[in-house]
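Case study 2.
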Amino acid sequence: MYYRGYILIRLKAIGTEWKVVNKLTGLKSNISEEKWEVTYVTPVYGGWDIVVECSFNKLLELDKIVSYIRIDEELSSWIEETTTLVSTKADYPEF
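Prediction:
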């Protein structure tokens, strides 16, 4: 079983949406003991510019995803703010 999380991203400037989407699409752990991945990324309309869906088994794995988004040099130059939402229970089928 695994959890699902959603990371909402607000950009610093219009026009960088697809750069962020391309950078995050397919992102996953390369460590055999971890099982996390970004499952979907899309630009959206409204108060946020991009929604990132991810799956993970432990909160520490979610922390790695969020930290990467906030610390990566390119991403941090495009992203102004993030908010993270976490599913309340692990009831999604294995991926």
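The radius of gyration is 13 Å.
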